[in-house]
Structure formats: structure tokens, C-alpha cells
From TrEMBL:
Natural source organism: Sulfitobacter donghicola DSW-25 = KCTC 12864 = JCM 14565
Entry's family note: Belongs to the inorganic phosphate transporter (PiT) (TC 2.A.20) family.
Predominant place of localization: membrane
Cell compartments where the protein resides: Membrane
GO CC aspect terms: membrane
Keyword Disulfide bond in record: no
Membrane topology field: Multi-pass membrane protein
Source taxonomy: Bacteria, Pseudomonadati, Pseudomonadota, Alphaproteobacteria, Rhodobacterales
Pfam families on file: PHO4
Family matches, as InterPro entries: Phos_transporter
Keywords on record: Membrane, Phosphate transport, Transmembrane, Transmembrane helix, Transport
Protein name as it appears in the record: Phosphate transporter
Transmembrane parts of this sequence: 35-56, 63-81, 141-164, 171-191, 197-219, 231-254, 266-288, 300-319, 350-369, 389-406, 412-429, 464-489
Length: 495
């Protein structure tokens, strides 16, 4: 009983700082009511338009920029509603974070990632998918970007409404491609770039799943399956937190500080290694203190992984903000540049107010419409506990960081959900392996019937197939919708 009371006190300590967000959770519940959330979203979209009017009210193309800013804000809201669930779903599903705490952390770190480190992927989306010079005129390029932005936003809005975690990156890339084909034919598309992007879409969920499975294997082999689990956790949990801190530090050195000082890759890795070692050393007494009085069982390990899971979720939100803000602001930035200077072939520069729309739009979208998909990703694919969720979050963060550094518009949805599937399928494999070992040790033990084996699957196959189908259909659906919108815009302009 004393041990249970001690366990309870540790959990209370972990949750105390998050308790202050209970009012935020109530507010999120309130805005989920019909018409309240959409009403607040509409106000934000109008404010984005007013901001564009303030900056471009004296130019001849001011109305185009205002409309584009409204569409960019609408897209950012949808990114927050759909994509951010992949960052916070594992932590909420593992009960390490309340919904209010998850929303608060995501709002802060998504905005920080977008404003501090966002932008590298913008040029790939705005100019790398279609050849701008094939558009002929600046107005044609502007209408193509407008169609891409609207089609992507509509598709993600529909997916969120039906509860499907589709890729906003897929949607905007498909939208740009479809508008480019409608405007200038198939030759306008940079097919080698598209092939590289498509390959990254296949590789990223597999890589996310593999990294998550490797970390879960490490935790199980070095901690869970040890005779003295608590002693093993005192050794390995600080190491895992150090890895996470080192990765974040290297990424921040590469991207977040580049406006102040240029840091090359070897130096960034050295900074990450040093910070990782420092965090590892600092976490040793923290974990030792947390583990005092815990029983030697798996349930006790959840307490030790609570704080690392929260930190890893925050890291993933930062990386997501840096990577996926491009989905909202790249077409908008391209439209602003083409409207200002009639120059639509040079590299895209991103005005600060455009980044603000992207960053705050993602945060508003999460707050207003995110809880539905957070619950789906966190609890309806496979059962997550803090250890499994930590593996998913750390895997997704590392993969998104690498992709963002390389300038590849990979899908954070694919990576995070791939991590969830990787954890689930590893658990299935590990359970089968241990069962085989038991049967070898006890030959008379009967094997499970096929029906029982299917019942014991730890990944819900219906969700697996549904999500794969949604991933496959997103690019062609967004492309066709974008092409149709571009044709309609041209007809309206020429009428």
C-alpha cells in the first residue's frame, strides 16, 4: 500500500504543472460546440485579410493579396486541426498529458518552430514542383498558387470533418501540381523533384516506424525484460532523454540560429553531442529521485517516462511547426512576391507577417478543431503507454528534423502514424517471438487457433487500411480539385 501511495505521489508531482491547463481544456470543449469554433476561425481569417490590407492597401494588386492571405489563414487552420494530432496524439493516448496540456504545449512550440526555424521547405513547394517560367505571366502563376492553396485547404477540411489523418503536405503538393498541369500542361511539372518527394513519402513512414521500433526494442531489452527494472531504468532513461536533447540542440543550432550565426553540420552535431551528454548527466539524479520507492514492475516505469514523453512531444511540435508551416505560407509567399514585383521565377522570400499567419493559424486550428483527431491517433490505432508513445514521438521528431534540414517536404502525418504502426507491429512480432520461446521451453503447450491469433493482433487492421487508402487518394484528389478551381478562376477572370 505504501508503494502505491508513493506511486500516486509521483504521478501527482508529474501532473501538477499541467493542472493549470484545465481551464484551457474546458475552453477547447466549449469551442467544439457547433458554430462557436467556425465563428472564431472566420474571425481569424478576416484578421489575416485585414493584415494583408494594411501591408498592401496602396498597391494595385492589394485585393489579390488579401484573398490569398485569407486562403493561407484557412489552410493554416486546417493544418492545425489535422496534422498537429500526430504530435500530441501519442502523449494524450498514453495519459501523460491532458487534452488542455497538450494544446498549450503544442500552441507554444508549433508557433516557435514556425517563426524561429520555418522556411527551408517553402521554396521547394512554391517553385520546385512546377517550373514558374512555364506559366507565361505573373497573373497565371498567381491564379495557379491560389487554386493550389484553396484545393489543399478544402481537401484537408473534408478529411478532418470525416476524421481521417491525411497529409497536408500531400494536399498542397498535389494542389500545386494539379494547378500547374491545368495552367501549362504536364511539361510544367518538375517530375524528377516530384519523384524525389514521392520517394520521401514512402521512405519517411517506414523510417519513422523503424526508428520507433528500434527505440521500443531498446527499452524492452534493456529495461522491461530485466530482473531489476527500476535499476535498469535509472541507467537508461537518462540516456534516452540525452539523445532527445542532443537531437533537438543540433537541429536548433542548424536552423534556429542561422539568422544570427552560420553553423555547419559537423559543428551542429558537436553541439548536439555536448548538450546531450550534459542532459544525460543532469537527468541521472532526477530519475534516481523519481524512482525511489517504486515497485519492480512495468506499471512503475510509466512514471519515469512521463516527463521525457512531454518533452519529446514539445520537440516534435517544434519540428512540425518548422516543417509544415510551408504548407500554408509557401503559395501565399509566392503570390505576395509575384504581386509585388511581377517576378515569379526567383527564389521566394517570406515576409514576417506571412509567417505570423501560418504560425498562429496552426495554433488556432489545433485549439478549435484538433481534439477529435488527437484522440483518434492516440488511442484508436494501437494501445499506447508512455514508453511506446515516447518512442513514437522521438522517432517522428528525429525523422522530421532530418527531412526539414534536407529541405524535403515530407509528411509529418506519415512519419508520426508510421511510428505508431511501427510500435504496434513490433509489439506483435515481439509477442509472437516470446510465445515461440515459451512453446520451445514447454513443447506440450498448444498453439493458438487462427481465430485467436487474429484476435490478438495489436494493430487495428481496419484503421491501417483506411489510413493507407486516404494517403493514396490525397495527391490525385487535391490535384484534380486544384485543376478544376484553376479553370473556374480563369473563366471568371476572362468573363
Amino acid at each position: 500500500m505504501a508503494h502505491k501511495n508513493q506511486d500516486g505521489r509521483h504521478l501527482e508531482t508529474l501532473d501538477r504543472d499541467l493542472a493549470r491547463f484545465s481551464t484551457l481544456e474546458l475552453a477547447a470543449t466549449y469551442v467544439a460546440r457547433p458554430m462557436v469554433g467556425p465563428g472564431i476561425a472566420l474571425v481569424f481569417i478576416l484578421l489575416a485579410g485585414i493584415a494583408a490590407m494594411v501591408f498592401f492597401g496602396q498597391t494595385s494588386n492589394s485585393m489579390i493579396v488579401v484573398i490569398a492571405a485569407c486562403l493561407g489563414a484557412y489552410m493554416a487552420l486546417n493544418i492545425g486541426a489535422n496534422d498537429v494530432a500526430n504530435n500530441m496524439g501519442p502523449a494524450v493516448g498514453a495519459n501523460a498529458l491532458s487534452m488542455g496540456g497538450a494544446i498549450a504545449i503544442a500552441v507554444v512550440f508549433e508557433s516557435a518552430g514556425a517563426l524561429i526555424a520555418g522556411g527551408d521547405v517553402v521554396s521547394t513547394i512554391a517553385k520546385g514542383i512546377i517550373a514558374p517560367e512555364s506559366m507565361g505571366t505573373a497573373s497565371t502563376f498567381i491564379w495557379a498558387m491560389m487554386a493550389a492553396l484553396l484545393s489543399a485547404a478544402l481537401w484537408v477540411n473534408l478529411a478532418t470533418w470525416v476524421g481521417a489523418p491525411v497529409s497536408t503536405t500531400h494536399s498542397v503538393v498535389g494542389g500545386v501540381m494539379g494547378a500547374g498541369i491545368a495552367a501549362a500542361g504536364f511539361a510544367a511539372v518538375n517530375w524528377p523533384t516530384m519523384a524525389g518527394i514521392a520517394a520521401s513519402w514512402v521512405i519517411s513512414p517506414m523510417l519513422g516506424g523503424l526508428i520507433a521500433a528500434m527505440f521500443l526494442w531498446l527499452i524492452k531489452s534493456r529495461i522491461v525484460y530485466r530482473d531489476d527494472k527500476i535499476a535498469a531504468a535509472r541507467t537508461w532513461v537518462p540516456v534516452l532523454v540525452g539523445i532527445m536533447g542532443g537531437a533537438f540542440s543540433a537541429y536548433l543550432a542548424l536552423k534556429g540560429l542561422k539568422k544570427i550565426i552560420k553553423i555547419d553540420m559537423p559543428t551542429a552535431l558537436l553541439i548536439g553531442a555536448i548538450v546531450g551528454v550534459v542532459i544525460w548527466v543532469l537527468m541521472i539524479p532526477v530519475i534516481r529521485k523519481q524512482s525511489q520507492g517504486l515497485e519492480n514492475r512495468n506499471k512503475s516505469l510509466k512514471v519515469l517516462f512521463g516527463i521525457p514523453l512531454v518533452v519529446s512531444a514539445a520537440l516534435l511540435s517544434f519540428a512540425h511547426g518548422a516543417n509544415d508551416v510551408a504548407n500554408a505560407v509557401a503559395p501565399l509567399a509566392a503570390i505576395v512576391q509575384a504581386s509585388q514585383s511581377e517576378n515569379f521565377t526567383d527564389a521566394v522570400s517570406i515576409p514576417f507577417w506571412v509567417m505570423i499567419i501560418g504560425a498562429f493559424g496552426i495554433s488556432f486550428g489545433l485549439f478549435l478543431f484538433g481534439p477529435k483527431l488527437i484522440r483518434m491517433v492516440g488511442g484508436q490505432i494501437t494501445k499506447l503507454n508512455p514508453m511506446r508513445a515516447y518512442c513514437v514521438a522521438l522517432s517522428a521528431a528525429l525523422t522530421v528534423i532530418i527531412a526539414s534540414w534536407l529541405g524535403l517536404p515530407v509528411s509529418s502525418t506519415h512519419i508520426a502514424v508510421g511510428g505508431v504502426f511501427g510500435v504496434g507491429f513490433f509489439r506483435e512480432w515481439d509477442a509472437e517471438r516470446r510465445l515461440r520461446q515459451q512453446r520451445l521451453a514447454v513443447p506440450e503447450r498448444a498453439a493458438f487457433a487462427p481465430e485467436e491469433r487474429r484476435r490478438r493482433k495489436l494493430v487495428r487492421r481496419s484503421h491501417f487500411l483506411t489510413i493507407l487508402a486516404a494517403w493514396v487518394i490525397t495527391v490525385p484528389a487535391a490535384a484534380m480539385l486544384s485543376g478544376l478551381i484553376f479553370v473556374l478562376i480563369n473563366l471568371a477572370v476572362s468573363a
